[in-house]
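Protocol step 4 of 5: obtain the predicted structure for the target chain.
Materials: sequence only (see below). No template structures provided, no constraints applied. The aim of this step is simply to have a reference model before the mutagenesis design in step 5. Sequence pasted as it appears in the construct record:
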Amino acid sequence: LREVAPCKPLAKIHGVSLIEIAVRQLAGVGVRRVTVATGYLADEIEAMLPVIARRAGIAVETRRVPDCRQPNGHSVIAGSAGFDGRYLLVMADHILSHDLLSALVANAPADADAVLAIDRRVASPLVDPDDATWVRLGKGNAIARIGKGLDHYDAVDCGAFVAGPGLSRAIAAAIGNGQPGSLSDGMQLLAGQGQARVVDIGDAWWIDVDDAKALRLAEAQVGERLPQVFDTKGAEA
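Step 4 output (structure tokens):
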């Protein structure tokens, strides 16, 4: 998104930044505290978070990633350090509807270390096939394979998880095994242990805002899809 905004989490849609949308959506499903893992342009993001917290009516804290050039699993480890229970994990550039997050929270199996929201609409115009993380399902609601380069898949990763401490341990183990340490590396390790499950979001709306085209699609739809954030004309609520 550099052509639109040099700091992606602060890129705005109708006056509301992507990261503020994420914080508001989390607050809307009962989250009481948000921890933001920061790295690249951390000072700029951290300067805006007190304002976002006040407008969203929720506590927001930050934890810096030691090296923001590392894969996103390192952000998960930094951001969830000290968590002793389950938490919602979302990406700052994914806009997730209330229906999606509610379904994930309500249906996440309690006996899994990580539960991923998936969308079976793999040909949706809102999904960028060149950037998507794909999911191949095993028996029941278990993940068999997850990654960007899968030839055969059943669904796309929505970028929203219910997770516990086991996810960070799995990412750390993957790094110890010589892998780069992406979130998918940890999820694949959990999948091999039968500890990675999914929740199908059905027809719930979401979009991954990775480029100017996706930003335009989001701008055209958020007013209708996220009425709690935007009024019917698309302006900030």
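Step 4 remarks: The two ends are 24 Å apart (CA to CA). The mean pLDDT is 95.
Proceed to step 5.
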